[in-house]
Amino acid sequence: MSFEQNLNEWYQNYLGRAPDKKGFDGYLAQLRGGRNIYEVAHEIQHSDEGRMYQWQKQYDTQRNYDIANTRSINLQKDKDKLERDILDYQGKIGGYETRIKNFEKDIDDYKYKEQQLRGQYDTALQDIQNWTTKAGEYQRAASDWENQFTQKSAEYEAARDEAAMYRNEAVGRQLAGLRSGATSGGSNAGRMATGTLASGKSGYQVADDKAVEIEKNIKAESGLLARKGPVVERIAARRSEQSNAPSKSATPASQSGSYYASRFGR
Q: What beta strand segments (E) does 104-251 contain?
């Protein structure tokens, strides 16, 4: 290495700068004049500027070290805080995950209950539709039975009225036959009797028994006819007369025309 290179390196390493012309030329002349290179290097390194540079360099190095160390400490603190935060966040995340799982379970339960309620609702709706259909059927059946009842009631009323009419007509005919059952002009036969009063036979008793039988039929078939009306009153009056009249074993022929008239009040 040449003297020029040595001087440039010493200035740069020991003084931290490029050599100035005056100093560079002075030291170059000394080296060329035979001065020991180590002495020149030692002189430059331990000069006032060299010592100041070394102190500043050490100071800067220490300062940089302190800064780096402080930064490292701060970084470590930040790292520790970050790790604590991470652990904290992980714990919170774990709690949130647990809550999320619970929410998911609740959601599944709600879905299951919703399906059950939907099934019950569909079943109830189907039941309502079925019962509505049945109610319509029952209502139609009730209307049909009501119509049948009304029809049968009308038929019953008509039949009852018709029966009453025929019963009244039959009773009238029977009573008219009884009233006209006496013999006329002393003949040997009458309409309702087997013999005449003039013959001395008991034919009038047959007619009397027939009247009693008709009266019983009237009472059995119609309570109204058994208690009301001129016919019933006439029969009741004749029965009262029969109970008060004296008993006779025979009636003269001359009275045969007036017997039924006296009995039924013709």
A: none
